[in-house]
Amino acid sequence: MDAPLHLREIIDLLERRYPPATAEAWDAVGLVVGEPQAPVERVLFAVDPTEEVVAEAAAAGADLLVTHHPLLLRPVNSVAATTPKGRVIHRLISEGIGLYVAHTNADIAAGGVNDALAGLLDLAETRPLVPAPGRALDVLVVYVPEPEAEALREALAAAGAGAVGDYTGCAWSVTGTGEFTPQDGAEPAIGAVGTHERVTERRLEMVVPSGRRDAVTAALRDAHPYEEPAYSFLATHAPSSDVGAGRVGRLEEPTTLRELAAVVAERLPATAGGIRVSGDLDAIITTVAVCGGAGDSYLEAARAAGADVYLTADLRHHRAGEAREEDGAPALIDAAHWATEWPWLPVAARALAGDSGGRVETIVSTRVSDPWTTRLGGAETGGTL
C-alpha cells in the first residue's frame, strides 16, 4: 500500500493548478494552518472556513480543509478562541486539520471557479471575459552530462518545469562540449583538481513559472551530478490564453431569458435569496457571460463581449441600474455569492484526486454557508417565471 502523501505534496499539486502568484495583490491565499510534513489521506473542499465547516471536516475525518474564501484576509492582532476566527484556528489545530486557501488564483485559472460556473450552463467556445496579462515565465537553461540528462529532465518536470498547456515535461536540448578546471577545495564529480576536463554535455531548456523557480532550483541541485551545476533563468512572458476573470461563451441552443433563469435556479445550489433577474423574460439568449462571486466590476466587459445575459452575484443597485440603460446592455441574473462559487468544489476535488493518483480521498461540503438564511415578502414586479 502506498504511503500517504504529505501536506507539502498536496499543496504542490494544488498550486500547479492554481498558482499563488496569479492571485490579486490584496488576496491571502496558500497554507493557513498545518504542518507541511503531516500525512494527508482525506481532503474536504468548501467555500467558507466557518466553524460549522470545520466541525464538518472533523466529523468526516479530513486531514485538510481546502476553502475558496480566505480565513485571514485582513490583518488580525489575536487568534484567541474568544473570536470566531480564533475558534476556527484552535479547532483546526486541535483536530490536526490543515487549512489551505485558493481564492482569486482559483477564480481566473483554467478549470477554476469561472470555468466551473460556465460548465454548469454547458457553455461552448468559452473564453475569459477579461483575459489576464501573460503569466510570467522563466526559461531555465542548464548544462548536464549526457548520461544524466534524462534523469535531470524528469526531476525538473516533477518540480513544475516544462508545463505547457496540457503537456508536461516539455524541453528543448542540444548536445555539445562542456569545459572546466576544478580548483583547490573542489570535489568534482568528474575529473580531478587541477586538470582541465572536456565533457559531452546536454544544454537543456525548460519553461518555469516564476512562482516555481525556488522549487525547480532545489530539484536541479538535488538531481544534478555536479557539485556546482551551470544554470541560469531567462525572463520572458507568455501570451494571454485561457486564464482571466469571468468567462463568456455560447449556448448550444438559443433560449429565452425566462428559460435560462429557470435552468440557473435549478442547477445552482439553493439559497434563501434565490436568484434575481433583470430584463425582458422573452428575450432570446445565445451568448452568456458569467463571473463567480461579486462581479459588477465586469458589467462593462460583459456588454463589450456581446453577452445577451450576465450571470454573477452581489450586483449593486446603482451599478446594475446604470449598466442596464447602456446600449447593448445584457440582461442580468444575480445569484447568491456562495452559490455561484460552489460549483468549483466538485471540479477541484476530482482534479486533486486525479492528480494524486487516487492516493487522496476528496469530499465536498454541501453545507450552505451563504450568510442570508431567510427571505420574506418577495414581490414579483417585473413578470413571473
What is the structure about, briefly put?
This protein is an alpha/beta fold and 385 residues long.
> Can you tell me the number of structural domains?
3
| Total beta strand runs | 17
**What's the CATH superfamily of the largest domain, by name?**
NIF3 (NGG1p interacting factor 3)-like
Shape: globular
CATH architecture of the largest domain: 3-Layer(aba) Sandwich
The percentage of residues in β strands lies in 25-35%
CATH fold-type name of the largest domain:
Udp-n-acetylmuramoylalanyl-d-glutamate--2,6- Diaminopimelate Ligase, Chain: A, domain 1
* Count of DSSP H/I helices: 12
Q: What is the residue-mean pLDDT, rounded to a whole number?
A: 92
Uncertain ranges: none
> What separation lies between the terminal Cα atoms?
55 Å
What's the helix-strand series? EHEEEHEHEHHEEHEEHEEHEEHEHEHHE
Spatial strand sequence of the major β-sheet: 7-12-14-15-16-13
Q: What is the level 1 CATH name of the largest domain?
A: Alpha Beta
Q: What is Rg?
A: 25 Å
Describe the structure.
- There is one protein chain.
- The protein is α/β, with parallel strands linked by helices.
- It folds into 3 domains: 5-103 and 343-364, Udp-n-acetylmuramoylalanyl-d-glutamate--2,6- Diaminopimelate Ligase, Chain: A, domain 1 (3-Layer(aba) Sandwich); 110-132 and 244-335, NIF3 (NGG1p interacting factor 3)-like (Udp-n-acetylmuramoylalanyl-d-glutamate--2,6- Diaminopimelate Ligase, Chain: A, domain 1, 3-Layer(aba) Sandwich); 136-237, 2-Layer Sandwich (Alpha-Beta Plaits), CATH 3.30.70.
- Helices cover 28% and strands 28% of the residues.
- The strands form 4 sheets. The protein has a 6-stranded mixed β-sheet.
- Helix 10 links the parallel strand 15 (309-313) and strand 16 (331-335).
- Helix 2 runs parallel beside helix 3 and helix 6 (149-158) runs antiparallel to helix 7 (213-223).
- The longest helix is centred in the first third of the chain and has 12 residues, at 84-95.
- The mean pLDDT is 92.
